[in-house]
Design brief:
By secondary structure, the chain is of the alpha+beta class. It contains two helices and four strands. It has a four-stranded antiparallel sheet with strand order 1-2-3-4, with helices on both faces. It starts with a helix and ends with a helix.
Amino acid sequence: MKIKYVLELIKQVEKVPVKFLSPMSGYEGLYEIRIEFESNIYRVFCCFDKGKLVVLFSGFQKKTQKTPKKEIEKAMRLKREYFESKNKKQ
């Protein structure tokens, strides 16, 4: 329910609060969706395609203050593969 709420918020609100969606500094075009439920914190990496389409890449449960580098690298790889695949179809 909480994930659905945050995705609906992103879809409907012009300026989504940083509490829910923020750019990953140092990783061009990569954003982090933040979801808190009870005492758990979840993150979903995404990007925007043509400004409107939100493309979700990967998610994980965050257990420390620092975002694991392997999760960021995985999201960046999936982002690159998404746009490469899309460009091949055009």
